[in-house]
Amino acid sequence: MGEGSNAPDNPHAQRLFDRVAQGGPRLAADLRKEEIRLSSMEPDPYALSALLYARNIGAELAEETGDTEGAIAILDASIEDFMRWTAVAPPRRGAEAMLAVALSNRGTMQRNLKMRKEAEDSFDEALDRYAERGEPDFQVPLAAALQGKGELLCDHGKFLEALGRFDEVIRRTQGQRDPRLESKWARALSGKVRALVQLHRMGESTEVLNALRQGVGQRKEAAMRAPLASALAIHATAIASDGSRSRAIPLFEEMRTLFADEGDSETRELLGGAMLNHASCLNEVEREADALRLFDEIFAAYRGEETAGLASIACQAMVGKAAALGMLNRPEESIAAYAVVVDGWKDRPEVEIALRVANATFGMGLRLVDLGRPDVALGAFTEVAEKYGKRTEPGFAECVASALNNMGNVLAREGNFTKAIAASALAIHLFDSREEEGAIEQVARARLFTANVKFLVGEREKAIADIDAVERRLARRTEPRLVEVRRLAGDLRSKPPKAVR
User: Fold this and answer.
1) How many Cβ atoms from other residues are within 10 Å of residue 118's Cβ?
2) C-alpha R_g of the chain
3) Is the dihedral of CA 403, 408, 414, 416 positive or negative?
4) Which of 29, 99, 216, 316 qualifies as a FRET site for 281, CA 20 to 30 Å off?
């Protein structure tokens, strides 16, 4: 079991501890019976320790079955009972240790559900209450709370502060022989790699990664190996993003060598993501044949997965293959690859899979344009807009706006300027308030497209107004692709097309 597996030293806990040690399919039911018995008792320090212990184990079991919300509810009940019982009688150390476990576990689960404010409150309460406690029972939950705080700070872009939390975890856990503390040490080093690459301190990131490599060594436990897989993937991806793809490729190959046979879902998901980045790097250094083979290998390894994270990797592999084939001017094969994604996963509701299907449908439209089949391409672009236009999750806005912009391009080429402007106007209407970089770019491109068409039909003042809107929106943006769109706006202003008479 996880953080809650230390048995409180009291008579109520002994049979609980024995039952947990036995495990088996009836464990959850037995824990529930014991929880009901204990919660019905008069406030008693020993019974409270056992009650919190039972609920901590029960919450872990619920999370293992995918019921994270139910697990959080169990931990909420533990925390409420602790407050109620300790108002009557002072708690024993065992009960306080179990509360620390409940708080840190709840914070971790809340972060996993993107409940970041609630997670921060849980971690803070654990640290405020017990940060100075030095007894062994408190070390695992305190390390978990500090680790969780560091990861939350990374989520919020506060990487310097996050480094401090990760360093504190390392200080508390380095050299410990408890496997749970060893895994916290490994995760803290992985967290440091994440923060350091975001701060562009790649030399330090390399040093931390090497320390993690040495510490994990030949260890087989998933709790030690998953942080190494994560750190390698983050470090290699950062190197590739900086343009050093030839340096990143050996790191991705190291991941494949180390983790190809891993069975746990976390490491398999990390490996799949790294292999996708590896294939993209191969494609960008003009090793197209190797990239296509790797995309096929990834697809074959993940196509039968049911969980959304792993199935999404198969979708991304086929989308990557389709995009690579398109760049090689092999549009028929590209369309066939996109169709595999659309036909295979179009009915899956999960966000990450739905986004891959949306992008595949859009990609089919682009390749159909290349094949000179604009009417069919318009159908694909329309499907993207109609099916995904109301989705609010990140990524959909860019995909739908891109589809609408390309619809406008096709219509304009056919001389249907009114419908072309309407398509781009819809992209602006739907996504002008969105702050995602991709959405901002596509809305700006939509405005420039409409400006260009308005110049052509003699509406110069309206065209200038669209250009002004783009330049205002992008005035302070420094992202390379937004800077490029701002440059295009300046070019269109200085060299507008002549009106068609």
Assistant:
1) 16
2) 27
3) positive
4) 216
